[in-house]
Amino acid sequence: MAAEKSLHSICRWTFNPGKGGFVPADMRPEWGGEDFGTPEMIKLVADKIRPRIPDNIVLGIEMHYDAEVDDKNAAAVADALVDNGLYLAMITPGAHTHFAYGGIASLDPNERKAAEELGTKTVDLAYGTLKKAWHPDKAPALVIWNGSFGYDIATIGIKQMYQNLKESVAGLCKYETKKDGDLHIGFEPKPNEGHPAMLIPTVASAILFWRKIEEEFGVSRKNKGVNKEFGHSEMIGLDHVYDTVEELDNGAMVHMHLNSQGYNDGIIFGGPGKYDIDHGTRVNGMNIAIAGLIQQAGYDRWKGHDMQTRAYDNGQQGIDRVVRSVLSWEACEKAARELDTKALMNVLAKRETAKAEDMMRTAVVAAQGYFDKMYK
User: Fold this and answer.
1) How many Cα atoms sit within 13 Å of 314 on the Cβ side?
2) What is the rounded distance in angstroms from the CA atom of residue 72 to the CA atom of residue 304?
3) Residue 130 CB coordination number (10 Å)
4) How confident is the model at residue 2 (pLDDT cuts 50, 70, 90)?
5) 3-class SS at 62?
6) For 46, which of 12, 78, 111, 291 is 20 to 30 Å away at the CA?
7) Structural domain includes residue 375
8) Any alpha helices (H) in the chain, and if so which ranges?
9) Is residue 373 assigned to a domain?
10) In CATH, what number is assigned to the domain containing residue 272?
11) What is the pLDDT of residues 208-228, one digit of tens each?
12) Of 77, 102, 96, residue with least CA distance to 88
């Protein structure tokens, strides 16, 4: 029996020459300059990553408008996707690169209007030049990252910013519905960055936001919800396993960003109080639990790898990080499928929690074995 198809998406922003600042900006010179744009990144994924992963995995690409795809290069990007057998998995307005005072939530009407136009142009491009690169059965996600929707001063103006955000997102959703309403629109919560305080900081905030949009503006919650971002919950010590329960219970998981901030595997540093480091997927018990939850719920959409190569990686090592992230998640999914959930629930009902720990630890060991086999 052939393995079930599994949709993974690779992020354009992972492939950068170096981050700069306190770390080198030129570790991977081959990933910078005019000769390495989004079409070249797509071909790199097809040539260097796809041959190293199982045949049942379907690959897509994620990108920002207008930093990584715009009206000038969209035709070349669409052609590269089609020619290489990859798909548009996610597109997001790169508002954080333009707007520092709230974006579509801004109290400055000029900034708010410009940010709204960036959103509608993103929708236009997805339904226009890029439409031929959609997967025939799994439409892309339009992810709204809250990097612009923040503030650093405690004033009564925060309430108006939140209202502006609701009105603008409602308008964007209505605009997208007129196009066909096929995109899956999701908020990506984050507690901080690029401001000390953010609108929509948590999964619960995002779920409540969509319910308010429906209540106040009549926007259907169908295909609306959350881009499940593991690392953003981990950063402030929240429980991303319970986040999963909330997302699934509300039918709100429209996209996933698999990564780790590091604190939950006992090997890499990161986690609460640390900066956003975005390691790739790890083999650990929490990921196996999440894999089991989404399997039970029948989630079969894109699983994106929102990750950064390490500041000291060369290009080959960076590619290897992405491969490892994809295989790690597949290994966790396999371990979750093979876990005896009936026996697990039985020991939990009997309060035999040490035995439950043993079962999860055995699943982690099994997942690492599956990873080793696939990686070789």
Assistant:
1) 1
2) 25
3) 22
4) low
5) strand
6) 291
7) no
8) 38-44, 74-83, 109-127, 157-179, 203-217, 230-235, 240-249, 285-297, 315-338, 341-349, 353-375
9) no
10) 3.20.20.150
11) 999 999 999 999 999 999 999
12) 77
